Each structure stands twice: as C-alpha cells, then as structure tokens.
Amino acid sequence: MARNQKRVAVIGAGVFGLSLAVALQKSGHNVTVFERHQYDKNKYEPDECEKVQAASVDVNKIFRASYGKKLHYQRLAMESREAWLKLNQGLDDALFVECGMLRVQPSEKLGALEEETLDNMQRDGLRGTQFVKSNADDRTRAERLGWGAKLLDFEIPDRTDHKTFDAVLDSLGGLTRCSAACHHYYKLAVRAGVKFVFGTEEGAFESFIEEASSVVEASKSKVVVGLKTRDGKVHKADVVAIAGKSKPIPSAGSFSTQLLPRLSYHLESAAGSLVTFQIDPGNTTLWDKYSPEKFPVMTWKSAPRAGDGKDTGSIYVFPRTPDGVIKIGYRGIKFTNFEKAPDGVPFTQNGQWSVPLPYDDCKVVPPQAEEAIRAFLSIFLPEFEKADFNTTKLCWYTDSLDNSFVIDYVPGYANNSVFVCTGGSGHGAKFMPVLGDHAADIFNNTDNAASHMRSHWRWREDSPRRNGLDEGPAGPRNMGRGLE
C-alpha cells in the first residue's frame, strides 16, 4: 500500500458518491462504494420495483452559472461547464445540453438577484453571454448570435397595457442528463478501479464499526474503523465517507441525516414537487416548439408569496426529452415531513426531525404545488393548462443552512475517520464533473486544500439555522404523515 493511501468506504452511489469516489481513487486511495439500489443493473433509470427516491435518479437537472452575489459558485459552475463539454466529446448523446436558460422575472423589471448576477458576469468578462430581453442592444446581439428565438415574450396577466415579463437569457445555461451522467460516472469509476457493493442487504449501511481511539484527542474518544452492512458483514476502512443515502428505513426512506445524525443541525430533508407531460411525436407542432433546439430551460421566480411576505420560490420547466417528456418542478414550497426523532439524535425540533415520506406517498403533489403549476401553465405553456399530468411525484433533497454543501471531516471522531460530502444532489448535479476533485482536495489536505470552496463547505457548527430550516414541525411546509 502506497504511503498515505487509505481504504475509503463511500456510502451512496449518486452524484456526490460517484464524483468523490472517482477523484479519491485517482488520487491514490483504495475506494469501495456501498449502495442499496442496483444501479449497476438499472443504469440509474427510475425503477418502480426498487422504489428509488434518490434525487440523482432523474432524467434531467438544470445547469446554471447565475448565482447573484455568490461569485464562488459562478466560478465553480464555469469550471464544471468546461468539464461537461469535454465529457460530451465522443459521446453519441450529450450529457450536457446547451439549450440556454431563460430566467423570467416577476414583473417587467429585472429583480435584484439578476442585477447582481449581471454584475458578477461583467466582473468575470462573461456579460456577453447574457441577454436581457428589455435591453435593445442585447436583443440585437442575441439575434446575431442565434439566441433571439429563445428570448420569449409572455404577457403579464391582468394588465391592460400588454406589458411582458422581463427576462434574462443565459447562453451558458442548459440541462444535464442526470441519470445518464451518473451511469457514465459509474463506468468511469469502475475503469478507475473503484469497487462497488450493490444490494438491499449487502450494499445497505447498517452502522459504523467503532473502537476506542489510541490517541487522546479532546472529545474524540472513538475512531471509526469501518462499517457493517445490513447483511451483517463488516467492512474495514480507514475512512467512511457519507455521500448520500443507503440505509433502508421502512417507514421513511433515508437521507444523510439518518445515516449520520450529527448532520441533523446542518441538513434537513425537504421535497420539491415534480409533474410531467407527454408529447406525442405525431404532434409535430408541440414536438418542434418544445424541443431543446427551440425552447430553453425556463424559470419563473414568481410563485405567490407566503402570508408573512417571504418569497416562496420558483417554478421551472425543461424542454422536452428525446422521448417527448416535459418536466416541470415547483420549488416554491419545499415540503417537510416531521416525525419523532430516534433517541440520541443530537439536534431535534420539539423532539422531531424531517424525513422523506414513504415511496408510495410520494406519487402525488400537494394541492399548493398543483395550484402554482397550473397558474404557471396558464401563462407560459397554455397548451398544457387543462391537460392531465402524465406523472406526479415528490423529489426529496437535503437542504443545508445556506444552500452550500457540507464537505469536511466530522468533528467528534478521531483520526479523521468520518468524512461527509452531501447537501443536495439537485444543486450538486451541475457540478458533478468537478465536485469530486474539490472534495478530494479537502479530504487529502483539509485546511491546506487549494480549493476555493473550502471555506464555504466546511463543517458549520455555529451557523444560524436559516433557509427554512428554522421553521420546524410547526412551520407551514410540514406535511405530517401522508398526503391524504
């Protein structure tokens, strides 16, 4: 075994786990990934039999470089975009689709977030990639560069002056084919030498294997020396890395907080609402109109505000897939499901924490989500306003305190024996080609890491609970048990 090489057990074979595993293996470690779902057999396609709830198993995710004042994420997105384009080379079907992203505003004026984004794009010499609909020079430039047809006009409802919503077309944006990308990275990992253990018993995390530490460290009396899977087998490791969900919990599924309760302060399981429509290829008008060649990814940050005036978020839509599926997501209210927390969880709210609903309860979306989506359709996709949904589902994410990931060694364990790399694969999917490299840098070098994301992703014990995580079980987003 080479000097400094470690045996690393990665729990979870989604966006975070795959990207981390490839990067760690390439940096000289011996990596094994544990995953309860048979992704090696179903190629990361949604599988009704396995009841997969992982956000990584999804036909598409948004790619964006627009981050307002968060210049560090803009730069990470640009680094990732370059990597996606390299991955596309030689593939029959692109993993990153450069269809652009149209960010429709709540009114005929640009919002503050867009102004901040444009400022940062200007700062990095990227302003020419952005086209503001209300800016005559930008429209002319968009026409000249072939983007003009995607600067779509939509009239503001209940106005007599026929004003249209302003919008920004980001030519850097588009979509990633998430399931296909995960399957691609699985194959890359295998070629790099990463080992995989799949299966509901043999691949499912059951518990850490802990021993007393031989080195006395303040409040670090235990060292993790491996993990036990649900089939009872013990797997030795120098570091166990939590990078997703793998442990089956019959009543609720599982996310990172259930695997590592110490994360319960930092992360919360929350659900976005997804619906789809199916376009018949024989309907050539709709097939052409909503193709990625003609239609961009589109977002509208104008869901109705909550009673306290808080912004309740946005709705987004993708161009149709090659199979004719149009997916619409409502992230206005990220629903929670609070239940009694197990004994020993270090952070709870009134003795409860949010966990995903059972798979069968996630096949419908709450009335608030359907109402918001129908209002969106009436303005932006009128052909589907009265149409039946093809599918509906809740997609569970792990929301963090500030929408940044948690990638760091976990305090409380000696010898840096537990590492965490998580925080929402919906957000993380766009960074998949570079996420693991930054995480591996932190894994290998901690505070000496070269990654500019180190300070943003570190363990944040004293950060205030915001981003809705402060609401708790009494908050308006809590669905309780079931959706009946």
From TrEMBL:
Its cofactor is FAD. Residues 455-484 are annotated as: Disordered. Transmembrane segments: none annotated. Keywords: FAD, Flavoprotein, Oxidoreductase, Signal. GO terms for molecular function: flavin adenine dinucleotide binding; sarcosine oxidase activity. Residues 1-21 form the signal peptide. SUPFAM superfamilies: FAD/NAD(P)-binding domain (SSF51905). InterPro entries: FAD-dep_OxRdtase (IPR006076), FAD/NAD-bd_sf (IPR036188), MTOX (IPR045170). Residues 7-441 form the FAD dependent oxidoreductase domain. Belongs to the MSOX/MTOX family. This is FAD dependent oxidoreductase. The keyword Disulfide bond does not apply. Residues 458-469 have a biased composition (Basic and acidic residues). It comes from Metarhizium rileyi (strain RCEF 4871) (Nomuraea rileyi).
